[in-house]
Amino acid sequence: MKKRLVKRLIILCLLAMTWAAAGWAGDAKPLSREELDMIREISREIDSSPYLGGLHYQNGVSCQDCHGVPQPGWDDPPEAEQCLSCHESREALAKLFDKELARKWGNPHESHLGDLDCAVCHKGHLASTVYCLGCHTNAPFSIPGQ
């Protein structure tokens, strides 16, 4: 029941964004063709999406739970603080990371680059990317929800 309600709310938000793109919301910035196509795809596949947005939805998490607003924009990834409101802390996440991999390659949640924003690696509605692999090309890192 809750999943169905969340899905309906997501579709309603996506429709509102579409209406805004059509100019029905006053001075709203029109969405690009790519953004409209993404709205259609997300609304069709949110309950079966392999990406993080779908995994969150399948666990009863709404758009607002992550983005902090009922109708997030496309350039509006969740802030790290919003992620950490459910995922405890960076330290807790670091403890979940495979100990053997961390010993050999380092722990991405304890980066030598400091506290990176979660969205650098973790994408909501697209395949996630392991930022570390930009330099550490041989590291066997992966992210759930890719």
TrEMBL record:
Domain Tetrahaem cytochrome: 56-137
Gene Ontology terms for molecular function: metal ion binding
Keywords assigned by UniProt, alphabetized: Electron transport, Heme, Iron, Metal-binding, Signal, Transport
One Pfam family this sequence matches: Cytochrom_c3_2
Coiled coil: none
Keyword Endoplasmic reticulum: no
Cofactor(s) it depends on: heme c
Gene Ontology cellular component list: cell envelope
Record's protein name: Cytochrome c3
Compartment(s): Cell envelope
InterPro entries documented for this protein: Multihaem_cyt_sf, Tetrahaem_cytochrome
Secretion signal, residue range per the UniProt entry: 1-25
